[in-house]
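Subject: PaaI family thioesterase

B.,
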Amino acid sequence: MKKDYFQQHMPENVCFGCGESNEEGLHVQSYWEGEEAVCTWNSQEKYHGWANLLNGGILATLIDCHCMGTAMADAYRREGRSLDSAPTYRYATGTITVKYIKPTPNDHPIELRAQVTEVKGKKTVMTCTAQVNGEVTATAEVIAIRVFDSSTHHGANPFK
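Prediction pasted inline below.
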């Protein structure tokens, strides 16, 4: 079954972390698995911090972009509509707090799992874990803020 990746519903997105239109980007792809948003990401040697370990800033970017997509998808889900429907929403990071528990290997798939814990107005609060081979390497609390709503910005594209 083909996964419905949140980021495929964000045309012209040039973000380094999640933008499909950024050739040099990380290309985070997130999807629903029950109540959790999941992303499995395969690194490359150029993203090393130390040899064979993922750079912490790259890991934070992965978590950040995974959670911004999750906040968007959650808003659509709460409204009972598809990711292709209007109005279009986009989110930006309000805060991100990453706790690095142990070094993240750079030579195995990294799995991110995010859960929405609270929605209040334009703010969505999430928790996220990063794990490799089932072992948690980082946890995060992320607050996303809705910064774009096409119903109030007629014709504007948030990615230009």
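Strands lie at 31-33, 36-41, 89-100, 110-120, 123-132, 135-149.

T.
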